[in-house]
Amino acid sequence: MRGLEAGIIVAVIAPLIGIFLVLRRYSLIADTLSHVSLAGIAIGLLLGINPVLAALGAAVVASLGIERLRTSKKVYGESALALFLSGSLAVAVVILSLAHGFNANLFSYLFGSIVTVTMNDVWMIFVLAIIVVTTLGIHYKPLVYITFDEEAAKVSGVKTQRLNTVLIILSALTVALAIPIVGVLLISALIVIPVVTALQLKKSFAITIIYAEIFSLISVVAGIFASFYFNLSTGGTIVLIMLTIFGITFVYGKK
Amino acid sequence: MPVNHDKNIIELEDISFAYDEKENVLENITLAIHQGDYIGLVGPNGAGKTTLLKVMLNLISPQKGRVKLFSTDIQDFNDWQRIGYVAQKAVNFDVNFPASVSEVVLMGRWANKKIFQKTTEVDRAAVKEALEKVGMWEQRDRLIGDLSGGQQQRIFIARALVNHPEIIFLDEPTTGVDQKNQDSFYALLQKLNRNFGITLVLVSHDIERLTQEVMHIACVDKTLTCHVSPEEYLA
Q1: Which of A83, A120, B43, B77 would you label with B117, given CA atoms 20 to 30 Å apart?
Q2: Contact list, B61 vs chain A (CB under 8 Å)
Q3: What's the first-to-final CA gap in chain B, in angstroms?
Q4: CB A39 within 8 A of CB A49
Q5: What is the Cα–Cα distance from A105 to A93, expressed in whole angstroms?
Q6: Which of B127, B128, B129, B106 is nearest to B117 (CA)?
Q7: CA A111 remoteness from chain centre
Q8: How many other C-beta atoms can be found within 10 angstroms of the C-beta atom of residue B223?
Q9: Confidence class of residue B116 from pLDDT cuts 50, 70 and 90?
Q10: ipTM of this complex > 0.90?
Q11: pLDDT of A232
Q12: A2-252 architecture in CATH?
């Protein structure tokens, strides 16, 4: 089951990025980058480039653009996100109206489709995942520090600007690699929900990541099997399982 | 650490700073801070106290003048573990952040790590020593957000201490700390200054309290309007 392999890789990666995005109030970046990826996919389909690669390129370019806009201080952070989110959706829709005929194909990118995951996709996801994990491993400690207290980190010599750029590029890579599994519209759920769920348990940073990983893996694996046997949408099933776990921890978690 | 009160730790020479082109926030400030000093920066709200602190920490660059840290021009200075910083807590700190006390203090060691360097026994020993200095070792496994304001402030001091700095900057450290805990907090600062020879630079609007604690008072109101002992200040 190629979908399962790809799903597990995505399940491991998403919370690792998610914990930094959620704690830095950047949750919406995942959503924005996923819409940008959709524009990338449309461009890819139009020009006959591998759509996931096209999505990857678009997401990376947009992530740098967002960071540039945000640090220019001329545009508020969330307004920068709104510009890119609606802008890229517009690009996608216009391209779709130009070129008829790949609507059905696009649907699988919108919502993900585990059955259409190819061996190529698995390899690509695997390579991207290695890149993300290695880069995170290198920058993990200073990233935690700037997430907690950016100013103090800066004073002690952390290159905050560079780390912010690294984080947003990694977010773009993660979004792109998750597309074949959950689709463009539900990616941010994978990045955000397991982390938000683990945060309800109020543990240390290291333990929070471990819980987020557990919730993510359970949801993705259970979601893939459930969607396979009951013939449901994979992405939707995964997200619903995640939300159920969130609901339980929210109600029964530590106050 | 033997304290040499003639040794300059910070030299500000004719500093002027403006956030935009219109009006200077700081103007022609010249000030030297010596090893072992305990100096209070006071002044009304918006007088530029925090701005001056940021200039000394290279968080912002002045349009005019020179800053030297440990006799090195600040642009060329990269020995930042000699400097500790405790920011205005209320501004920067998310009480829901999932971090234990020891994780927060350990962050202080992370800034100077090279790629792939692991947390070592030396790091853990430094964390323990720092937490013991501020009397918080027993709380090491608690979440930072579960502590009281005064305890949190001690943890941030411990994070600043963990690299054995020679100077610590504190920006309004007693905000959100109740009266009783303020006393023990100031006692801790005295201990760091007297017993460990750490130079302290404290920004506060609580002038009355500062005059009982510090060795020097520097009044900032765009310019440096005084640089005196507490006795002279009160006279």
Answers
A1: B77
A2: none
A3: 34
A4: no
A5: 14
A6: B106
A7: 14
A8: 15
A9: low
A10: no
A11: 86
A12: Orthogonal Bundle (1.10)
